């Protein structure tokens, strides 16, 4: 699988160090507030799994599955709810966990949805931010790493459902997209 990768952008060690830092920051910020931490499937699963263990205060977590890319490299712009939350966000301090913000369509949709559902507050933590991809005005509250305008894979991020299980983030060799 490593043969398919042209360049490792963020190593496993760098990701884990960042998660330790984010965990400490969120512990301080949410101490005593019992936030509802919402992981956006499928991409955020590894990030969420690692990060919640580093938040050293009570949290509740839930998962929502939304998709706007299908098997494409560019967002369709239409966000589909594949699986909704089991928990009501009304009156809750919501913390959305994402693997990447690119066009901003997914998060922009979710922030509006949770506000409409009367969340008390909505904050966004993303592992990766790709500001050059943005087509809507959307800024994360916390971003782990800024990435260039390239299609990245690994640590939750896929190409045709592959590569999500890589422990690092990298750029695929162009021949993988072309074949
Ligand atoms: O800022 P955007 O352009 O909206 O892109 C970000 C979204 O794209 C990816 O999800 P995708 O729709 O590919 O679903 P997946 O997580 O199941 O792979 C990623 O996990 C984010 O949710
Ligand atoms: N795998 C992957 N999914 C994305 N969704 C939005 N941007 C990206 C990206 O760069 N890589």
Automatic annotation (TrEMBL):
Annotated GO MF terms: guanine phosphoribosyltransferase activity; hypoxanthine phosphoribosyltransferase activity; magnesium ion binding; nucleotide binding
Cofactor(s), names only, from the UniProt record: Mg(2+)
BP GO terms, sorted: GMP salvage; guanine salvage; hypoxanthine metabolic process; IMP salvage; purine ribonucleoside salvage
Entry GO terms, CC: cytosol
Metabolic or biological pathway: Purine metabolism; GMP biosynthesis via salvage pathway; GMP from guanine: step 1/1; Purine metabolism; IMP biosynthesis via salvage pathway; IMP from hypoxanthine: step 1/1
Keywords tagged on the record: Cytoplasm, Glycosyltransferase, Magnesium, Metal-binding, Nucleotide-binding, Purine salvage, Transferase
Free-text function comment from the UniProt entry: Purine salvage pathway enzyme that catalyzes the transfer of the ribosyl-5-phosphate group from 5-phospho-alpha-D-ribose 1-diphosphate (PRPP) to the N9 position of the 6-oxopurines hypoxanthine and guanine to form the corresponding ribonucleotides IMP (inosine 5'-monophosphate) and GMP (guanosine 5'-monophosphate), with the release of PPi.
Protein name: Hypoxanthine phosphoribosyltransferase
Source organism of the structure: Salipaludibacillus keqinensis
Phylogenetic lineage: Bacteria, Bacillati, Bacillota, Bacilli, Bacillales
Gene, per the UniProt record: hpt
